[in-house]
Amino acid sequence: MRVAISLRLASEDWEQASAYVVEAERLGVDCVWSAEAWGHDAVTPLAFVAARTSRIRLGTGIMQAGTRTPALVAMTAMSLAAMSRGRFLLGLGVSGPQVIEGWHGIRFERPVQRIREIVEIVRRATRGERLEFKGSVYELPLPGGEGKALRSAAKPQPNIPVYLATLSPKSLEMTGEIADGWLGTSFMPDHARVFFDHLETGARRAGRSLQSLDLQAGGFVAFSDHVERLIPPRKPGLAFTLGAMGSRQHNFYNDAFKRAGYTDVALEVQRLWLDGHREEAAARVPDELVLKTNLLGTEAMVRRRLELYRDAGVTTLRVEPAGETLDERLATLGRLLTLVRAL
């Protein structure tokens, strides 16, 4: 099982973020993912750390699909793949209507079909093919105008891996069918089949197995002999996921927890959060949910969680190590890597 980390820029300390990735590379971390929501974009930070590293793979985790044209996604992917000497991973996700419509001013329409067509166009472009495409969302060139089918002027980069961050059954099936890897969230190895059954259905449709995908999932990692102290700080984040990551009508994260058997909790936390009772929402999150979505406690407890992820079929553990300082985060990461290698 490999280990992946996220590039965090909460304090906008770029030098510390760079130092974290450089040291993570030295420790043996496989890849680093850079996110975007409504702050920094996912692409620019990767270019920053690409110049300071040589082995660790660099992924957009995720680039919001539909906010860029498919051709621009392809251009960006080829640029990062070239400057990193083949280390780039293209991670895409549909985000949600609150961000896509509220921040970007783009209608959140046909998200599964849109991302399917983006992946197909990107792959054609990165292979160096002339872009001629007619889908239900995109058509290249536009009919009735002066556009012409073009081929990228950049050197082809035909083997850029595509990862999709998906949650709904239909989008999971599409991931299994067309992607090289899956970026999992709201994931509990105890309930892995909630996701993996759909991924496997899609993979079989494409004539391959689930094992052909790099399945990435994980959580926050913290070591302590007093696990009860580690649980409360994680509850507000779960309450945010259940309540704020979408509207009352569309919250894909909330829906995933419902499918895992936590319907009552998911609905109650969402209601409390959206009604403005955020502390009550956090208090309503059960300890069990915190423990199942993270890796917390003694080394023996964390080792057991690692075994569950491995046995469930997760191939890359994506983690956020605990620590107030850079040294503390790296110490947690190093301790985890030692346990992973011992599996």
Structure description:
The protein is an alpha/beta fold. The protein folds into two domains: 2-220 and 298-342, Alpha-Beta Barrel (TIM Barrel), CATH 3.20.20.30; 225-295, no CATH class. Helix content is 46%, strand content 15%. The chain contains 15 helices and twelve strands. It has an eight-stranded parallel beta barrel, surrounded by five helices. Strands 6-7 form a two-stranded antiparallel ribbon. Strand 2 (31-34), helix 2 (44-50) and strand 3 form a beta-alpha-beta unit. It is globular. The termini are close together. The relative contact order is 0.12.
Number of helices: 15
Q: Provide the gyration radius in Å.
A: 20 Å
First-last Cα distance: 8 Å
Beta-strand fraction estimate: 15-25%
Rounded mean pLDDT is 95
CATH fold-level assignment of the largest domain: TIM Barrel
Q: CATH homologous superfamily of the largest domain, by name?
A: Luciferase-like domain
Entry keywords:
alpha/beta, TIM Barrel, 343 residues, 15 helices
Walk me through the topology.
Elements: E1 2-7, H1 14-27, E2 31-34, H2 44-50, E3 57-60, E4 63-64, H3 70-83, E5 88-93, H4 97-102, H5 111-126, E6 133-134, E7 139-140, E8 162-165, H6 169-178, E9 181-183, H7 193-205, E10 214-223, H8 227-230, H9 235-244, H10 252-259, H11 263-274, H12 278-284, H13 287-293, E11 295-297, H14 299-312, E12 316-321, H15 326-342
Parallel strand pairs: 1-2, 1-12, 2-3, 3-5, 4-5, 5-8, 8-9, 9-10, 10-11, 10-12
Antiparallel strand pairs: 6-7
Helix pairs in contact: 1-15, 3-5, 6-7, 9-11, 9-12, 10-11, 11-12
